[in-house]
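Q: Here's a chain of 167 amino acids. Please give me its 3D structure as tokens.
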Amino acid sequence: MSLASSAVPALDRDAAHRDPDRPYDGDMSGDANEVTFTDDELAFLHTVIDLARRGESEQVLGLIDQGIPADLTDHKGDSLIILAAYHGHSELVHGLVARGADVNRVNERGQTALTCAVFRQNASLVRHLLAHGGDPLQGGVNALATTEMFDLPELRSIITNHLGRRV
């Protein structure tokens, strides 16, 4: 895993870089200054990812409030919000959005949190993510295309209505 903002923490001890003039935001990809993590630090960051996957909202949000980046990302590009949306952890998604998590971050498979919410057919999370800036056309496997791919007319309607309001 390494910590990055546009690629967000891709928790990879040897690939982490950081700009000393920029506050640490979890995005360490592409910076010139290498940062290394101890085995214990990496294990801790992996634990945070696992907590998000399990929907441990109070713990994850508490750690973010203490300085863990809201956009912490695993080695596959899955951010905390992508994992929370995929697993249907609404409280955690809401908390991450409130703490500035990037709702349009794209993982290595071209998916966003919105795409995951659509795939899992979670209309409530789809509406929430759209209301907070989720772009249904973002990513190689975007949310709108997912509604078509899996024949999800209710979710397609939610998204097209949202897009109609935006235009």
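Q: Can you summarize the key feature?
A: The chain has two domains: 1-102, 106-167.
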